[in-house]
Amino acid sequence: MYQADTIAAVATPPGEGGVAVVRLSGPDARRIGSEILGRKGDGWDSHRLYHGRVRDPARGFVVDEVMFAFLQQPKSYTGEDTVEIHCHGGPYVVRQVLGLVLAHGARHAEPGEFTKRAFLNGRLDLTQAEAVLDLIRSRTDKAANVALGQMEGGLSQEVRDLREQLVDTLVQVEAAIDFPEEEIELLQRAELARKVAGVVDRLSALIDSYEWGRLIREGVRVCIVGRPNVGKSSLMNALLGVDRAIVTDTPGTTRDFIEETVNLSGLPVVLWDTAGLREETEGVERIGIDVTLQRLAESQGCLLVLDGSSPLTGEDRKVMERLRGSQGLVVINKNDLRQRIDRAAVAELLPRLRQFEVSALTEQGLDELRTGLHDCFLDSAEEPEIVVTNVRHKAALDRARSSLAEVHRAMDDGLPPDIVAVDLQEARDSLEEIIGTVTNDDILDRIFSQFCIGK
Length: 455
Ligand SMILES: Nc1nc2c(ncn2[C@@H]2O[C@H](COP(=O)(O)OP(=O)(O)OP(=O)(O)O)[C@@H](O)[C@H]2O)c(=O)[nH]1
Ligand SMILES: [Mg+2]
Hints:
Elements: E1 7-10, E2 17-25, H1 29-37, E3 48-56, E4 61-71, E5 82-89, H2 91-103, E6 107-108, H3 113-120, H4 126-137, H5 141-151, H6 154-178, H7 186-218, E7 220-225, H8 232-240, E8 258-264, E9 267-273, H9 283-298, E10 301-307, H10 314-322, E11 328-333, H11 343-349, E12 354-357, H12 366-377, H13 391-412, H14 417-435, H15 441-448
Parallel strand pairs: 1-6, 7-9, 7-10, 10-11, 11-12
Antiparallel strand pairs: 1-2, 2-5, 3-4, 4-5, 8-9
Helix pairs in contact: 4-5, 6-7, 6-14, 7-13, 13-14
The structure holds guanosine-5'-triphosphate and magnesium ion (MG).
């Protein structure tokens, strides 16, 4: 499948450190190791750490005093004979050791080539190999947990299960092709349709988890909007727990937008405080309002702030008209004062947005608002059991689901079994692409080139 030569690279990051690891993998790993370590490699126990000296046999001097291990195939990361040399972590030493290894016949590894070999040797499937990269790149607990779950095979197992089900179904459909006189019976059709629907449900859960994962990684952008002086900046400060935005009783205080992130039960929310919206203003305030409108267009949701102590104004209504069709919440602020707002009128103008009564001043109602905001974007607080984070997986799952929609249509229309079979095969192929049972070199190159050298 690939050229079984011996590759080598430095597995640790560049620069100075306590230890650096030079790793070799392939059929000559043991020979090269024993040549530069000046020892007979035949007697090495696998998975044992030895003490030794790396020598340059040509020049006859010691390059470094090291620890090294021999990992006999197939019980190594790559599934091949592997030698790991732990040398002192200075650039000069590392260069010397790697230089010797290469001079003795190893080839310098390409980015991700060790992991690629692990995949090609069946040590990992494709989703697990990709999870290695995700784990290396993780920046938060949640991201690391998701990557670990995928590395341990959570996603692969689910995809394999679904594939099995499709293969079972395919067997039945193909039997109907081979024995046309026994066309798929009506009863059997219903049974097949039920099975396909079950697979579609589970595919949909995986596809939905992608959105969840994306939200957890990237957060949502929420724009705080409203007419001047309703308390947008006060609300921003209250949600952040610090006085970040300037608050005064002069309408038109906020001119530029302010961005800060709050963490709502694991959901990062990027809040934008903006200039109050009103018509017929000029100068700096007008520019601020234009910025608000632009931010509003770029946000994924809004917090519309209204002043509960005042009846709705024409300006409030204009803002509400802009928000028709937006996702978000209505915040009726200043509920520490006597309330004069007509909530029913607000509900009539923005029926889809839930209303929350708060006081940015006394912080009353803020916890409910936080929960409401969280639920508005992550309707179930439940973390999906398996989270799809990779866009390649998501695309393949989407393709599998559309093929199954075709299967349904074909069965409903009573089309012949060979047509049903083609769509089922397509769905199966899409699932196999995810785990890498069928794949092509382009995809592999694209995946593994994202890795660092030495992994
Ligand atoms: N009583 C009371 N006053 C509040 C509350 N929230 C804000 N205010 C007051 O309302 C005034 C305006 O508050 P801001 O937060 O600056 O209002 P804004 O919507 O950001 O105003 P612009 O930036 O001008 O659009 C200030 O005097 C605040 O102290 C509240 O919950 N209760
Ligand atoms: Mg303000």
